[in-house]
Amino acid sequence: MTAPTGIRPTASSYDDLVRRVLDGRLGPDPCTQRITVAFTTRQAVRHDGRGGGYRNEVLSLRLAEAVGSCAVEPGALPDGAVEDCVGADVARLLGHELLPVRVAALDAYLMHVRPHLPAGGARPFPLPAGTSLRKSRARARAVVELLDAPPGSTVLVVGVVNSLLEALRRRGLGYVPCDLKGGTTEWGEPVRTDAPAELERCDAILASGMTLGNGSFEPLREHALRHGKQLVMFAQTGSAVLPCLIGAGVSAVCAEPYPFFWLDGGPGTIHRYGAAL
Questions:
Q1: What pLDDT sits at residue 54?
Q2: pTM for the whole thing?
Q3: CB of 156 within 8 A of CB of 200?
Q4: Which of 110, 147, 204, 229 is the most buried (most CB within 10 A)?
Q5: pLDDT tens for residues 70-119?
Q6: Can you say whether residue 267 is alpha, beta or left, with left for phi > 0 and alpha for psi between -120 and 50 degrees?
Q7: Confidence (pLDDT) at 51
Q8: How far is CA 170 from CA 8, 137, 173, 174, 190, in A?
């Protein structure tokens, strides 16, 4: 099953979605929509009780009331990229030389014209206040609940988050952790670096929206569509982009627009699409 019955995708692929935006088929002409604020958010984290930590860097663009985001490898964004986005229209940024800029611009535009509302299929999921680990685990449960997989199934996890692996373990699901950075999981398991090479031996796919920004998303979507596998996305990157592809290979999305759960200790809200819970 790739999507609940009756859901029609907004677009057939990521590139098709961009074309529809540029053609003005999803909202106002993107040539008339200008980015007023551009910024990056950097964090380093090591949750209490965890042996390792990680770093994040996210490019965010503001269009009116909406913020679109794309994660990048720390230090990968060139000097001047943020300034280059300010005052630019969305159409120009959708043709920018940097893929993360293009993704963030598309996300900002779609957040502006299609915010996360029940009328658009979003189901809000409250995150509790608390420590970074408590919020991370709550988000992980919300994501993993979108998987319709029996115990014993093997899930390819693209973009390793230990709280997600922990939630999969609790459900009795096997997994193949994959991340371009490699390394090991909290439990000493080797992290693979070539996601396409692992697809055939996995029953379902759980992937980060960061795959949009590094160019690895489309092979996952195409494989899921071709083989009828579930593809569940957890999305800080492209939280408004990925719901448009439910039914075109994407099965469900846990969308988390800026500000992200790790920025604040108070309660928050994420939005789930696609799966019948």
A1: 66
A2: 0.94
A3: no
A4: 110
A5: 999 888 999 899 999 999 999 999 999 999 999 999 999 999 999 999 99
A6: beta
A7: 60
A8: 33, 12, 8, 10, 19
